[in-house]
Design brief:
There is one protein chain. The protein is rod-shaped, with a radius of gyration of 48 Å. It has 20 helices and 19 strands. Strands 10, 11, 12, 13, 14, 15, 16, 17, 18 and 19 form a ten-stranded mixed sheet that branches. Strands 6-7-5-8-9 form a five-stranded mixed sheet, sandwiched between helices. A four-stranded antiparallel sheet has the order 2-1-4-3, covered by helices on one side. Helices cover about 55% and strands about 20% of the residues. The relative contact order is 0.07. The protein is of the alpha/beta class and about 650 residues long.
Amino acid sequence: MARKHTCIDRPQSGAATLRTILLLFTGSLLVLVLAVGFVTSYGYFRDYVSEQLAGHARDGATAVGLSLSNAIDARDPVASASLIDAVFDSGRYLSVRYLDHQGREVAGREMTLSDSTVPAWFRAFADLELTVAEAEVVRGWSRLGKVQVVSNPGRAYTDLWRITIGLIASTAIIGGVGLFALFLLLKRTLRPLRALERQAQALGNRNFRQRVTVKSTREVNQVTAAMNQMADDLGQLFEGQAKLIQHLRRVNNEDPVTGLASRSAFDQRLKVEVESEEKAAPGVLILVQLWGFATYNQTYGRSEADRLLLRAAVVINGFVSAHVGSFAGRRNGAEFSIFVPGAMPADAGIWCHDLVIELDSVYADLAAPLETAVHAGVAPTGEGRGIRELLAAADEALRLAQADEETGCHRAEPEKEGHHNLETWRVIISQAIREQNLTLWLQPMVSEQQSQPVYHQVFSRIDGPEGPLKAGAFIPMAERFGLISDIDRLLIQRVLMRLAERPDEPLAVSLSSASVASEAFRKEILAMLEEAGARAANLWIGISEHTIHHHRTAVGLLVRALFRLGVPVLVDRFGVGGVPFSYLRNLSVQALRIDNSFIHDIDTHDDNRFYLESVVSIAHSRGVKVFATGVETSAEYSVVSKLGIDGAMGYHLGRPFAADH
């Protein structure tokens, strides 16, 4: 099955935003306009001041020339010098000279421009032209000479300096106010774009609940409305897919009357628990049957019979909830099956007796005045005993219980109490924890898309009197004694030590339900992962679907904390925990690991194949990987590969091996 890999865009460092680009462009344009206006205004005022300076020089030259021509005798050097001194001492001229007709100076005064409040650099920049104004000195029809006058530009520079300062200040104020107003306008206009960006990122993360409510221009409002509609449509599509998967799971694996596992689903899961080499664990199988159910059905009708079965299922579900890891199903009619992992046969006999008494009480109340009885057969697992032998032993025990007629249960092979009693198990596990006697075994998760394993699943083993004990044997006991959190803590420590030695080999561990529910354990494991730093990103944390179903708050807190640390999370044993698929969208999980029971004989099980195909499709649409476990034949691997899974694990692909080797 072909599939597309989705890439979630992350914020691009260094990439300019649209608001920044528009602000730079329009701001630059505004600055350019203001700069052109400033240069034009400055040029105009400079020319104006220059003309005023030249006009002043001409007026001065004309006035001095007329005075020398009419008011005094210009041929008298002393009188001429007195007139020129009087004019020059006004300080408005740099130079006043009276030249005869031969160009010799008769009288004159001049000075340099030194004392000025205007900076020298500005005078050099402005560089006003100093015009030499001339006027003729005549007496009657005789030309006596000419007057040359150069105006003092100091005042002109001062006026031009003030004008320039005013232009700069007004330009800066107008530019600042304009840029600020432009910034506010763009911020207000483009505000929905930031919300659209967050919505796009949310859609990339398959979060369809993000909405844009900010209003802006008509065009932007139309875009936000379209995005909101698309998010609604995608959300509804996802909900429809999730409901379809839940329906398929119920149809394929649940009994329609009681909600317990169907016969085929129970047998598949039981086979994994009993016959799988790594998972095979001690436990007991209990078969329960309501005697006289056919008579009850004929007497009260089908609806009342279904009501009785539903009441019995409630009692059985209560029993299952009280025993971690156990599961139940309806076989046919009023016959039920229950598997309790890690149970001692003697304990199972006591639990079974209490169960049938409670069921008989419900049955008797509903069936009165009919005679009722509830019988049960208990059979323990054993080395070399497959599912057929186990079912046959439990069925034989059930028949022996029915032969007694009265309500009760019968235990097959009562003389065999297993290898160890409860106290021996407690000593073995406690000693292993105290001495940190725990070894790691690894099994590869293989992917066709890469040459190296996606990760290695870590299994723990401890030493027992007869040799190494697999996790399937001692984990149920550790859970029963309340020691499982210590096992998980030790496992995490060992795994992080291995990652420190081999950081390029990702590992995966599965946490128990009790550990996840413990606040103290969660804090401790998060502290260890935070201390581990970057290498924690190569550790996959598995949380079973059953744990999610029973400890949603604790799981939510842990998953969010792991997400912040960059630690990938996978949902373990997916498909058997009863968690609605839609709930998983609220968790930042990176992968689903399908339970072995769905993979076993999938090449001949069309319902499971269709279910897995649907899970892969909807998971990939949300950017979540899908892994398969328990692949033990080439036919099974061929099927799951065609369905587009991201990795597979099982004895067909690689057996567990000691991490030290």
